[in-house]
Amino acid sequence: MTTPALPDRLVLFDGECGMCDGLVQWLLAHDPGGRFRFAPLQGATAQALRVRFPEMPRDIDTVLYLEGGQLFQRSAAAFAIAAQLRAPWSWFRAFGLLPRALTDLGYRLVARFRYRVWGKLDACRVPTLGERARFFP
Fold it and tell me: What would the pLDDT profile of 53-71 be if each residue is shown by its tens digit?
């Protein structure tokens, strides 16, 4: 399988996670310039990227963010995404100054309980016609 042409900013998310779906919806609403693109971790794009990025985790308990050929995981992904948003949301990246072990611990705690709190979807959400160009399989 070949890796598809990648956009500058790609958010890889758990397509069955209610919290992750909420994050994608929120990013769509707060990214009027349409800079972010999205792909579910269960899809063909993520599968192809695992060849290119062997450090990419096999499990789906983290949002991944690919920007300029660099892969960000866990809290680093959240901070890198925040850096692309307008204020006040971009200020969230300041938490990236904290030790990564601490911010990743917080990230892992949220990830552990995300299905219990936000639920698990039966399938990945189908993008609307206007959103389809921003989603990869």
Answer: 988 887 777 889 999 889 9
pTM of the model: 0.84
Show Cβ contacts of residue 68 under 8 Å, excluding neighbours closer than 6 positions: 8
Give dist(CA 8, CA 34) in Å, integer.
11
* C-alpha distances out from residue 78 to 1, 48, 87, 122, Å: 28, 22, 15, 25
List all residues 6 or more positions away from 123 whose beta carbon is below 8 Å from its beta carbon: 15, 16
Q: Which domains can be identified in the chain, with CATH numbers?
A: 9-120 (3.40.30)
Give strand ranges (E) for the chain: 9-13, 37-40, 64-67, 70-73
The pLDDT value recorded for residue 119 is: 67
Distance CA 60, CA 41 (A): 6
| Residues 6+ positions from 109 with CB-CB distance below 8 Å | none
Contact 53, 67 (CB under 8 A): no
pLDDT at 35 over 80: yes
